[in-house]
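Re: beginner question about structure tokens

> Can someone show what the tokenized structure looks like for a real chain? I only ever see the sequence side.

Sure, here's an example I had lying around. Input first:
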Amino acid sequence: MRLNGEQLKRERQKKGINQEMLAEVLGLSQSMISMLEQGTRNVSWSTVEKMAVFIGCQPELITDNGEPSPYIQIMRDVKKLSDNQVEIVANLIKELCKKNIEENNGKDRA
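And the corresponding structure tokens:
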């Protein structure tokens, strides 16, 4: 996931956090933090979340497109559904997971 490097730097500095501190908390190098702020590297959503927690901002604030992760958006959307609809979605997810496991097991045998 691409970060909004300028926004990350702004939020980090606003909280008095230097690149070394952020790198240490995330288990990254200071040079990696620098590259993230320059927009030359991508990170996983879980790293974005850890970053946001440490800095004290919403993850969406430091992502390039400013949109929530698909996981967060799904959770927001599910809250709008009826109990019956939530059950349908839950069953669909179970089936998709089951199918994914079956497909991965088939690849292991090939």
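Each token stands for a local structural state, so reading them left to right follows the chain. The longest helix spans residues 83-109.
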